[in-house]
Prior knowledge:
CATH superfamily of the largest domain: Glycogen Phosphorylase B
Radius of gyration: 21 Å
Shape: globular
Strand content: 5-15%
Helix content: 40-55%
Mean pLDDT: 90
Amino acid sequence: MKFLFFILPASGHLNPTLAVAKALVERGDEVIYYLPEREAPRVRNAGAKVHVLGEQFASPESKLAAQGVPDGSASLGRFIPVIMHALADGLRGAPAVAQQVRAEAPDCIVYDPMCTWGRLVAEMVGARRAVFNTTYVLAADSKLVRLMRAQMRPNFAILRAMARLLWASERLHWRYGTQRVVPPAIFTATEGLNLVPMPKRFHPDADQLDGRYLFIGPSLMEQRDTHDFPLAQLEGKPTLYISLGTTPLGRRPDFYRACFEAFGGTRWQVVLALSGMDPSTLGPVPENFLVRARVPQLEVLQRAQVFITHGGMGSTMEGVWFGVPLVVVPQMPEQALSATRIEELGGGVHLPPENATPDALRRAVEKVSEEPGYKQRILELQAAAREAGGAQRAAEALREYAARKG
């Protein structure tokens, strides 16, 4: 069988799909991603092929980084217009991509709802379609939608970018008859099969979702990248891992310096990932810290006792998979919902970023590491995650779905 994947070219969206692609390839299927070249190596490591798209389809993160935003100054209000502009760019290029896709004659197109151009390409082609939800499914009156409405304050830049996106969508609708990409349904989609890479009990609106939604749990693939990270230094020591993800929103020098103050000289061996920042910009590093621009996250989490995270879905599920209690310092509404869910389920605590002082960080870490209930409940969530079936279950579901008649 032939599967085409259209996924937003960002780590948090792309990474959960790679293990599924690998599982399909191992079953003898052909898997092709449509992505910019900078994302291609990870896809090829999974055994899949890449049809390279131009920079018109680059990720919102890379476009924000290209603007030269100083570390610590990226904000949600600044990031949202970049997202909207990136999606509009993709929509403008969708017809040309659709021509390529028709020639492929795929058995199934798998798309990420956030990859709006992929969604409309799939609609133009008329092939069987499945959804890979890389985050929460936005059900009617979902908690995430309410959080987004509460936290988003539209400004001129956001409204202008939204208008550009709506115009690009409207032009496609007039010419090709595709669905309009309009609020509040920009990032929602439902097909005959909808994969959700989390345990069902983690999703706050799971009771609103019918049998078309398959909760596969975390979909993880071992990292093949060679690295010089000294994992041996973590052996026999209580390890605290800190990461705010890979986007420019995580480049928070003040937060990282607060971590230096909170945990420098303590019993913890601290691993600090800097979202791509240059470590030399932070000044003196405490002796018990290992600070890197990038870290082999899965390998570190296998050795960690506590994880301070931004609450991105990928990082949250990786922490759950390895049974590591979480301290969640969210940067975006989706991450705030993950922080709430982790706290509700007893696997960690929610620490709002404005409250993340050195004292508060220290208290939160000691709380989740010393009170046994947190470890017990994260292990219960881990069991649910591992029983969900992951990439293998997703691959089987996709193959069965693609083979259906009608």
